[in-house]
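Recap quiz, item 2
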Amino acid sequence: MATLCKNCSHALVFDPVSQMMVCSSCGSSFMPEEVESEAKKYRQDLKAEEASEVYNSNEEEFMDCYVYSCSECGGEIIINGTEASTTCVFCGNPNVVFSRIARQKQPEFIMPFRITKESAVKLARDTIKKGFFVPRAIKKFSIDCCRGIYLPYWIVNATYYDTMVLEGRVSEGKKRVTRYFGRTGHLKFKDLPVDASKAISDDSSSKLEPFDLGHMKAFDEDFLAGFYSNVSDVTYSDVRKAACERGKEFFADAAKKDIDALEPKVVESYPSIDVDTDMKYAMFPAWFITFRYKDKPHTILVNGDTGKVVCALPWKKVLFVIMFIATAITAAVLSFFIFKGLLTSMFASGRELKKGDLRILLFIIVGISTLISTGIAKVKRVMKNIRLTQDKAMFNFTKKRQG
Amino acid sequence: MINFFAGLFALAFGFGLAFWICGTELDKSNNIGDSRGDGSAYKAEATFTSKCDRMEQSAYRTFVQQNIIDNVATNGPAGQEQVRRLTEEERRKKAEAEKKSNVPKGAFVSKNTSAASDTYDMPDWEKRVGDQFIDTSL
């Protein structure tokens, strides 16, 4: 049910710019915290019918779906079990169905949208336009849909424990050798947001960070008006696993800083975590912009608070290959003369090969292999993130919403 | 022979540099917003209780065996239970339990450095413990 304007009874919508509830009909605006509406009381008793019962069907598309009536036009609203607010497909008015969920499951905090739909699209377009390898068709993408969705997060305090072994290269005399470093200890961290929705991957949602927790407000259903939202559907085990992964990252960073070695790498780790069960439940804003390129779905995420854009896009392969070959040939030709000079001086007739010469050759070989492996690692990372952007589950998470 | 090896090195270097330049440029151009909050954003402070540096491969197993921390038993609900907010009652009980167990480890150093003050600045935890163990038999 929508919260209605006191002056004209039109549905109010939350405006990210003014941070007020705005009536598009008469132009009145109200502070969300101050709106005392019948809607909030009405939502407490809101009853939903299971879609499978309404349609007398056991088809998969009706599983975990509920049917409501739009408070404005009486139209049918179908939402799944984790959605808390949506838009009526018939009249376009916002509908919040939050209070069907037990109060204990309601968030304590909400970070209201500060970025408007138009700004989110502009930010995404401006960022993509700067990409040298981004195909022209993507730079001018036509939006499939753009939805503002409040994502559920648990804000976690935890203590992470680990016994970690790292390897690194150290100097011993004139040699460089691999040695191992052991670190045991604990690491406390505070206010880590852990994604509480199974529908989108932690890899994608964590890239929306950082969130400024100072922008959080006490939860009020009216902030949801005009946006979509999901409620938490994760288990304690999911949260512990996600917090443990982040804890391991932080612990490894701290351990790497603590040891005196080159190229430190974690070899073994025996982690455990104690998560404070008194977690804070909050909703954070994100814009999901979807488009299709070469028949593949793509989803761009924009942090609804800071405007950070998250996506990885396919690249112009021909341009990449041309640039790669041109760079390789130029560098090869230029370096040929340098290497020729170097080798000639090393293998000059009557001169014995010195230890220093061998060290130079070894340095060149290690340098070349480092360049190749770093370059390949970067390309692989881009490809992995492209798969996340093209994730069908995330595309459907955005697309399969009413309105 | 020298020309052959110089050519080989030059080719490998050319490909290596091309991989690095193109990979970096591709990462910058097409991989947008690929970062997340680091430890400092979440006030992560590591405390190392045991350290061992420059071990041989054979020695690090011993380090692991000596220092491995058993899985920490959490008071939290079972893993497959859906996460929920604690009720006010649960929060109150939890806070009380934490207060009771909040006895500092190690020696307590009194802040009362002035003998003239004639008062003993009993720390909070001592007051709480005292409340529980008042000997009423006297």
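Chain A has two domains: 12-101, 117-314+390-399.
The two ends of chain A are 15 Å apart (CA to CA).
End of item.
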